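Posting this for the archive.
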Amino acid sequence: MINKSKFNLQYFLDDTSFENWAKSLNKNDIAYWNNWLQNNPQHIETAESAKAIIIGINFEKQFPKIDKVNEELAKILPKIGLEPTPKKASKKSRASHKVVYFSTAAVLLILMSWTSLSLFNNHNTTVHKTNFGEIIDLKLSDGTSVVLNGNSEISYNKDNPRLLNLKGEAYFIVKSIPSTNAKFWVITNDLKVEVLGTQFHVNTREKKTNVVLDEGSIHLELNNGDVTKMIPGELVSYSKESENLIHKKVTLETPYALWRGGTYVFNEIPLKEVMFNLELTYGVEVKYSSEHLKEIPISGGIPNQNLKICIAAIEKATGTRIINKGNILQVQKDPIN
């Protein structure tokens, strides 16, 4: 539950979903904050002030240090036939005016380049981020659909939504553009997914990236430079830290875990891995009354739009009882079974 006492100006400014609302970037965030403000009118003035700050800032001024300016001047002045060492004040000449003129121009050029880079980095990127337990459906400007799982984030240049970065977990239905054969890229910490038009799942949890392909074909460019091609029904798992690569066909005998727009699909996955997904998605902590409970295998679909429903499905599939107290899930054997 949100602590309302924390809703000061800085809280709104630091909240990514509020920024999306202020900039009208995400329909889910817009609906949430419109409803929240309607139910919490005492915070409207603070929220509107934060919105004005967010949409009113054009760029963040970041100036280079004086040493950086002097370093660049030392490079530029010799090229125009001038010495970087300033003239004595008593000797005023046209040359000294040239030094001042070119020095000023050089400093201005450096500052313009610096602030332009800041403007590009800070305001040319669109970010969609989910909170714990939140799932959002996104439609990118090119027609691609993205379902973003809880505690996840995608970001991309607003002029090129077909090149995006992912942290967490998402399911993609990429819109094909036959007229141009425009590719679609998903970049993680471990690899790049190259797509034309297809459906696939990407998970960047646990210091590795898992990709499961449902339709079409994709190329993966691993962080070590290797390239591998996937066909429907295949799974690839790769970690740049261990350089461990798994590439296999998903069958009834293959242990796997994937997520399709609101439902986890498991096949012979131990309970500890299933509950680890809940920890990451909902921000909870899991404890077990007995170590052997961790190894109970699960197969089938588990809906995760709601934690209570998700827990009930896991209890039924494993014959356990899961008690939710605060943010701690206590897993124990169901006394009835």
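Confidence is low (pLDDT under 50) at residues 57-62, 87-122. The chain has eight helices and 20 strands.
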